[in-house]
Amino acid sequence: MSVFHSTMSRRQFMKAIGLAGAGTGAAALVAPNFHDLDEVVASGDNLQKHPWYVKERERLDPTMEIDWNVIHRYDRRYMGQCSNIRAKYYGKAYVEKIDAESGALQAQRMKDNVPGFGHKWEALRTGLSQSNKWSVSYLGPEVSGKITAATPESLGVPKWQASPEENAKLVVAAIRLFGMAEAGFNNLDSTWRTKLVAFNEKGSSTGSQWIDTDPANVPPTAARPIVYENVDQPYYTAEKWVIPANKDLNVLYLGGPEPRETDRTYPSRISKSNLVANSGTRNIAFYSTYNFMRALGYNMFGGTGHGTDCFQTPGVAVFTGKAEAARMTNWVISPSWGPRSTDLCQITDMPLAETHPIDAGLWRFCKTCGICADSCPSNSIQGLDAGDPSYDMPPINGKPDTQHISGMKRFYYDGSGCRNYVNEFIPGSGCSACAANCTFSTGSGAMVHTVLKSTISYVPIFNGFLANMGRTFGYGAFEDPEEWWNASLPQFGIDSTLTSTVKSQ
After folding, report:
1. Eight-state DSSP code of residue 200
2. Quick one: 198 and 335 in the same domain?
3. 4Fe-4S ferredoxin-type domain location, by residue (predicted)?
4. Residue 107: burial class (beta carbons within 10 Å; 0-12, 13-18, 19+)
5. Which domain holds residue 467?
6. What's the predicted TM-score (pTM) here?
7. If both were cysteines, with which of 79, 86, 164, 213 could 351 make a disulfide (CB 3.0 to 4.6 Å apart)?
């Protein structure tokens, strides 16, 4: 019989936490009667059906508390990465100094063959770069400034017509072929339009040219505002993105796992956040999904990329039921693959059946864990000593926090301190220490992980114990980034079966 850590059988372990036979304790009140771990793993057997331990909540009601009377659209000119915001908290001279020296430090590390930053790592990073004949625009992928996608008219067929449920299933099947794993949908109603659509694109507002400028005075040409007008079709100019005000539209979220092992090379040239899958897989999925939707007869718009879309993308994952909020705040956590996602958000006029927020116990677990904060080299994440999540924003380096918006009961993250640390000490990396060490960044190859996920969902009394177990087992970054080169990894470095129920024949 196979054993767990050579001392306990799988069935014994399941019985110990109340998931086998009649069950014991709190788990027995809510869990199905599984006979073995294979039944647990196979329990989520429908397309995008959550495992039994993941509960669906009401629309726009995530596990993190939100005060809808306070929350408002986020102005990206106040992002912690912006040079003027960094200077506000840590001083202009310091920010200019570390930014000016970061390029030379990165080049010297390559020449010195520093593990994670040497010649072969630079070659690997270069190989991940992409150049496309098309470019991203607010309206979709453009070639020489024009949309070239096929339409029903050009194909000689009528517009595709189906129910919202059928359309949703169609989209999920297609995006999995295009490189994504999950899709979330929600109606772009007044709450989304007035609270959750970003105030503007990021544009060039993070640049050093604005270091002496009050964020409110950064011009619209640098961070185009997203506005609503009574028009039939979306459009953009040099100074604005326009969403039709009176059309029935939907939010479309696409997400999939990024390679865990690239994060585990922290710090390195490939541990950079939003680098590996986002520089390739997301572009493929964006281009392919856009052409798919247009060929069916529907519009899809909103831009794509870090800060160059209409939403704070992690939040959309939460509101469409694909993730929960996390202590580290800059990431959310998917119950399928953890904190590191390649994802994008769009707006479409295709009718789509909504998906709602979930409760997989992830946010509750984050409250008792704190590993991400312990591993953060810049102390930019609130740890266990901060207590419970709060609506009250703590100061950043002694000054009021303007990086976040009010209205969310959460932990807070210092984006300026994080960016400064990267530029000063590990330029060319994006750190990602928090994601690399997150309890949910561990692999899913061991079937017992499915049981552990169900345990945190329904028996939260074990959360502190399981968090400490993660520390004991030493999950997280490689001791030496060079270990990555000897790892036997799947194609694209990801487990593409995480959300699939199809078994090999």
Report:
1. B
2. yes
3. 354-386
4. middle
5. 1-43+442-485
6. 0.87
7. 164
